[in-house]
Amino acid sequence: MLSLKNVSKSFGGVKAVERCSFEVEECTITSLIGPNGAGKTTVFNITSGLTKPDSGTIKLLGKNITGMPAYKIAQSGISRTFQITKVFKNLTIRDNLLIAKRTNDTEMNRVLESVYLNKPLDTIASELSYGQQRLLELARALSMPHNLLLLDEPTAGVNPQIRQELKSILRNLRKEGKTILLIEHDMDFVMDISNTVIVLNEGRVLKTGKPKEIVKDKKVLEAYLGK
Ligand SMILES: Nc1ncnc2c1ncn2[C@@H]1O[C@H](COP(=O)(O)OP(=O)(O)O)[C@@H](O)[C@H]1O
Ligand SMILES: [Mg+2]
Q1: What is the pLDDT averaged over residues 173-182?
Q2: Confidence at 226, pLDDT banded by 50, 70, 90
Q3: How far, in Å, from the CA of 34 to the mean position of ligand 2?
Q4: Domain boundaries, position 221
């Protein structure tokens, strides 16, 4: 579905991503993990077109999308959320969703239901809890026509109940045929729902495998515990 080949990106002297290659299979939940500063968000920014890579190739369903502007990549079927929530706090839920797609109340309520956010569309986003704002951002990402969803730390700062709900939201999406690539720090969460785990360290792919293979890998443990 998505493939990165030898993708590199430096910021000044910092090699944020270095010859990074991996594939995301269709209808899977794939997790991108790694210590802070490993380059995970940069990989998302490159994939969604917010950052241009210095070199390398990114393909979506076989189509080369390297260096395409973000809006074109979004049109090609990649939708995303951000590590730091980007909902418009002084707008209503309805207006936050209308930014993604011109649609009607019925359809919006259906999307909200799918993320367990049972609030009236007229609710001002700032009245939602932080976790609910994250769900609203997810709902907005889902409103955009897409087949690949990029989620940057969806559980960060959300309460345990929403964290559990997120698991079933993501599993339901996979069941519907969506492909999900997520950055996540909560290892229990990652190991519970992922088909594949990609470990990044210092901009490079350290290891790719099934959750069971990742948890017992010596190099991975060192990357997390070594420093
Ligand atoms: N826009 C930027 N300008 C300068 N340095 C950046 C920028 N974005 C990321 N970096 C640097 O690139 C490295 C990887 O960052 P990032 O992709 O955010 O890591 P992660 O998401 O894994 O924590 C870090 O050293 C970070 O400081
Ligand atoms: Mg990050």
Answers
A1: 96
A2: low
A3: 9
A4: 2-77+146-225
